[in-house]
Amino acid sequence: MTGRLGFDMRATGSDGSGDAPGPPEPLPPDARVDLARAEAESRIGQVLDALDGELVGLVPVKTRIREIAALLLVDRLRARYGLGTAPPNLHMCFTGSPGTGKTTVATRLAELLHRLGYLRQGHLVAVTRDDLVGQYVGHTAPKTKEVLKRAMGGVLFIDEAYYLYRAENERDYGQESIEILLQMMENHRDDLVVVLAGYRDRMDSFFASNPGMSSRIAHHIDFPDYTVEELEAIGALMLRRDGYVLAPRTEPVFRDYLERRRRRPRFANARSVRNALERARLRHAARLLAEGGEVGREELSTLRPEDFLASSVFTDTALSRNERI
Amino acid sequence: MRITQGTFSYLPELTDGEISAQIAYALGNGWPCSVEFTDDPHPRNAYWEMWGLPMFDLRDPAGVLHEINECRRAYPDHYVRLNAYDAGYGRQTTALSFIVHRPAAEPGFRLDRTETADRRVRYRMHPYALDRPAGERYRAR
User: Fold this and answer.
1) Whole-prediction pTM value?
2) In chain B, what percentage of residues exceed pLDDT 90?
């Protein structure tokens, strides 16, 4: 093929570039843009509203996510005026007690960043130490890289990230994984958002021993524990989703249950509420079968006080016992 | 001589953006991608070296492009190609394969004429690059 054109060939390289439209002309400096319309066009309102409606409490988290959404929207408008900005660093760290909604918020975040055009795909890849760290020499790097490639275009959610680093064993492969992670977080900032999650105190010691990781994460978001009222609202949301209602007499019992359960060890916020409701459903079903006779829609969907009162939270006052409720 | 193999071989070199678009098309069809390299691009050499394992479960072209760039960096004097494999029943074969990187200088091939028994003539295609040991074939002299 020495300069001779083959059959059906074109002389110039217009083939590849012809179908991709170039960037639109920048707006003139004196143009005005309607912020409300830009916001409506990006449809972020839906995600933020869903965040507000489906997640109870978590005010600091929601505030931060709103701020990030605003920043990305403004950045997009700035780009239309030709004002260049470096893509913001959106790697995050979620700290909080178990069951405070870290994973749920990460999923929403992926969707939100996708709508704002920051992420191309907007999927969430949730991993733990096992998925990143190998078992023998030379196993860790390919494993970590594979996970990172899978997460590109979306959010990589590393649950209980502090297990990556084991201070007591300096030959642990976790350190290798952390190094690759750091390198990719830096070089592929616009392809990938990394979210680390874990309990507050252990994350703090993890960052203390990995200062490079701490400084590459721009947003450290703390998830507060839920109050009893918030837990009640969460329970109500879960019940509504599953098609159950509490009998009026059950509501104070449920509140009392939550207050007692909160004081017991291994309380896991929303997850404990879910487990409590699961067990109440079990007792409800068993009770219906034991009573026999005919049932209607109301009986099938109403939880009565005895479904909760049978719990060991009410009968057993010893705090040291395991969670057998 | 510019070697033409695989899809798009008669087009000008694809840019990274165009390669990304092709990868996105492959991933959109559910074809896992893999990167291979060689310094023996004879048309009958089907088995190129694998650059890592095929990449499964990817959603975004950035991961594949990252591996292509890593391979280019490690083997600047080799040919690098991208394969996309269609595992669907009835096909189960490479669905898309094209060269994404080539050495700066490509000396090309010559035809060797050999006379065998009964005055029959056989031709064989000989890449000039093959005169040098593997690994240095396309390195600039």
Assistant:
1) 0.80
2) 71
The answer to whether A102 touches A113, Cβ cutoff 8 Å, is no
| HEC sequence for chain B | CCCCCECCCCCCCCCHHHHHHHHHHHHHCCCCEEEEEECCCCCCCCCCEEEEEEECCCCCHHHHHHHHHHHHHHCCCCEEEEEEEECCCCCCEEEEEEEEECCCCCCCEEEEEEECHHHCEEEEEEEHHHHCCCCCCCCCC
Give A105-149 as a DSSP string. HHHHHHHHHHHTTSSSS--EEEE-HHHH--SSTTTHHHHHHHHHH
Contact A126, B40 (CB under 8 A): no
Could you count the other beta carbons within 10 Å of the beta carbon of residue B85? 19
Determine the residue of chain A that is closest to B64 in CA distance: A149
Q: CA-to-CA distance for A127 and A31, rounded, in angstroms? A: 46
B83, B33 contact by CB (below 8 A): yes
User: What's the burial of B31, exposed, middle or buried (CB within 10 Å: 0-12/13-18/19+)?
Assistant: buried
**Helix or strand holding residue A312 (H, E):** helix A312-315
Mean residue pLDDT of chain A comes to 84
Give the nearest chain A residue to B22 (CA atoms).
A16
Report the residue of A149, A185, A186, A190 to disrupt the B interface, i.e. the one with the largest count of B CBs within 10 Å: A149
pLDDT at B100: 95
> How many whole angstroms separate alpha carbon B6 and alpha carbon A309?
71
User: Any idea what DSSP says for residue A26?
Assistant: P
Domains recognised in chain B with CATH numbers: 16-101 (3.30.190.10)
| Model pLDDT for residues A201-239, shown as the tens digit of each residue | 999 999 998 888 888 898 999 999 999 999 999 999 999
Q: b/e map of A77-116 (b: 16 or more CB within 10 Å)?
A: eebeeeeeeeeeebbbbbbbbebbbbbebbebbbbbbbbb
Of B12, B21, B61, the CB nearest to A13: B12
Q: If DSSP codes are grouped into helix, strand and coil, which group holds residue A199?
A: coil
Q: Are B64 and B55 in contact (CB under 8 A)?
A: yes
- Alpha-carbon distance of B21 to B23, in angstroms, equals 5
CB contact under 8 A, B11 and A13: yes
Higher pLDDT, A188 or A1: A188
Neighbours of A177 (CB within 10 A): 24
> What does the alpha-carbon distance between residue B70 and residue A290 come to, in Å, rounded to a whole number?
67
ipTM over 0.85: no
Instruction: Please count the CA atoms within 13 angstroms of the CA of A1 that sit on its side-chain side.
Output: 15
Closest residue in A to B18 (Cα–Cα): A16
CB B101 within 8 A of CB B80: yes
